[in-house]
Amino acid sequence: MSERRRAILLYLIKGFKRKIGREITLTRLMKLLYLVDRELAKRGLSTSGTKWIRWYYGPYSEEVERELVSLVREKKVKRDFVILGRDAPILKIFDTDVQAELDANTAKAVDDVLKEYAELSFDELIGRVYETFNSNLELGEEIRVISTD
Asked: Does domain 3-132 have CATH number 3.40.50?
């Protein structure tokens, strides 16, 4: 388990709720964390250390799934399954007192990603994510998070 990934996930989940006013879905969380990793790399900061693979609807990580299961067990995140079409299940913060400790530069990168991408529709978000990697990769192939200037 990565403490950095965990902190970024919690910050992202809480930040999405604060910005949008609703809980974040698993698919959207995966895509936003991937975009955060790209933004961190672009700024020369440490990423979440997540290994990303190409999957349905873009980047996916089993490591993130395991981290979320751990957060659920610790009652820091509640995972409710609500069918919303393609963009489900819903993840909810279980305890609003759970703090996500991030350094100022990382928090700014996450906030900037939320500002740019959080309000996009599901299809718009997926489209923007697909622009960031070689979509000719086969399912299961690794997507490398690289700086793009």
From this structure: no
Distance CA 143, CA 81 (A): 28
Q: How far is CA 133 from CA 29, 108, 122, in A?
A: 18, 23, 18
Q: How far apart are CA 112 and CA 118, in angstroms?
A: 10
Which residue has better confidence, 41 or 96?
41
pTM listed for this prediction? 0.90
Average pLDDT for 47-65: 94
Does pLDDT of 149 surpass 60?
no
Q: Is the pLDDT of residue 88 over 90?
A: no
Check whether the bond before 59 is cis (ω within 30° of 0).
no
How is the chain split into domains, by residue range? 3-132
Report the half-sphere exposure of 21 (CA within 13 A, side-chain side).
Answer: 0
Q: Which two tokens stand for residue 130?
A: 């697909």
